[in-house]
Structures are given as structure tokens and as C-alpha cells.
Amino acid sequence: MVRGKGDRIFDGFVFCFLIAVGITALFPLLYVFSVSLTPFSELLRNGGFVIIPKSITFAAYKELFSMPRIPDAFRVTLFITVVGTIVNMILTILLAYPLSRKKLPGRSFFLLMIVFTMLFSGGIIPSYLTVKYLGLLNSIWAMIIPGAIWSFNVLIVKSFIESLPEELLESASIDGAKELRILMQIIVPLSMPVIMTVSLFYMVGHWNEFFQAILYVTPIKLQPLQIVVRSILMQSNQAFENPEVTLPSATLQMAVVIFASAPMIIVYPFIQKYFTKGMMLGAIKG
């Protein structure tokens, strides 16, 4: 196929546009990272704007890790992310697999109920009362159990399983395999792309846990990392109202942002191939 001058001009325009979008997306992250490594005195001399610092210091990170709340908050967030994601995936797969079977009695009703929860919720007060009466208030499980299943993720996994060849399941059934064996030895291995994709969704949600912690958790030792990050960043606003409040430096604030964001940024490249493949295959067949 011969490409004309118009095609080359269009390709060049698309290339330049993508470069501009990439720079726009990466610039804030580069700025935050640069400021976190810049000496505060240099930052002041440059009016608070530094992209490439002349000298590098880790003083902000040393101060960050010396804060007593950071280790506890990190452990809480790590527990919520790991345990919460495992609970999420177990329940999501156990719900999505039966719903993918067209012979399931009442399948349409169950799907309707799942979609209904995506459109309507009980509200904050009923949810709070439910958590309270279950005895989950001021416990780490209050940030895991209420969001144990996300309806949207169930539908994604269900659609992916439906796209698998039906002949595989039928041949396994003919060989005498029960439903649990079919799920563990056939469905789960073949569904790794969507499992990794949905796991990423759950991981990011748990790592950024904020709203449920505000509602259900009062003890400081049980507060996740995002609550601590917010309190550090909010001190700059409180300093204007109360002169006695210690104002954290801009370098410390940026170091907090990098520390809270880095784990998910590091994890994503390792499961990027699963993420892309899972999203594409999960949308083939509904």
C-alpha cells in the first residue's frame, strides 16, 4: 500500500499530539518528584518551581520516615491492600462463575440485583448503621468487608468467562469433573488476564482507601496511609488559621505524595500486559 503525503502529515500530527499528551501527563509527576528531592532553600530561591534541581537531598524523606504515624499507616494500608484484594478476588470469582453459566436458575434475577446495586445504594447512614451493628466499627475489617464485592468487576469477570470456549467446560464435565474442579483447574488458569486486571482495580481502590476510613475508623493506629497524607497536606491550610501549627515544608509535602503513589506506580508495569489483554478479551462477548 502506497502512503501519500496526506497520510504522512496525519501520522506526524498524531505523533506530535501523543507526545504532547505524554508530556502533559508526566510533567506533574516529574515536578512533584523533583521538588521532593530539592533542598528547601533552593526551592525558595526559585519561587517554588523546580524541574531539575541543582543539588539533591533526601532530607524530606528522612523527616517523613521519622514521623511516628507513617509506619503504622503503611502497615494498615498494606494489610488492607493485600488481604482486601485476596478477599475481593475470591468472592468475585465465586460469584462471576455461576452467573456466567446460562443454565443457572434465577440467573436473570441475580444479574438484575447486581446491576441494581450499581445504580442505587442504601446511602451513607444505612451503610454506617450496618457496619456498626455488625461490630466492625473501629476495626481494620471495616475497610475491607463493606466493599468485598464490586458489582462492575463481577460483570467484567463474568463477561470474560463467557467468552471462553464452551466446549472446554462440556468436555471437562463429560470426564467427570465437578464444578469446583472446573473452576480451579480450567476457568482460573485461563482467566488470569482478567483476574490480574480486576486485581489491579481492587488494589488501587484499597491503597487509596480514604472514605471508609473517615466513616468507620477513629483510632489513629488504624488509620490508613491516605488519611495521614491528608493530615500532613492539610497542615499548610491550618497554619494560616493557627500560627502555632507547624507548617510542613513543600519538599516534605511532595515527598509524602511520592511515597503514597510510588507502590502502585511500581506494580503497574509488571501487570500491564495482563491489564490490556484482560480488558480487551473481557469485552468480546457479553
UniProtKB/TrEMBL annotation:
InterPro entries: MetI-like (IPR000515), MetI-like_sf (IPR035906)
Protein keywords: Cell membrane, Membrane, Transmembrane, Transmembrane helix, Transport
Any one Gene Ontology BP term: transmembrane transport
Record's subcellular location: Cell membrane
Membrane topology: Multi-pass membrane protein
GO CC annotation, single: plasma membrane
CDD domains found in the cross-reference section: TM_PBP2
Transmembrane segments: 12-33, 73-97, 109-128, 140-161, 182-204, 250-271
One of the Pfam families matching this protein, by short name: BPD_transp_1
Domain ABC transmembrane type-1: 74-268
Record's keyword annotation contains NAD: no
Family statement drawn from the similarity comment of this UniProt entry: Belongs to the binding-protein-dependent transport system permease family.
Protein name per UniProt: ABC transporter permease
Taxonomic placement: Bacteria, Bacillati, Bacillota, Bacilli, Bacillales
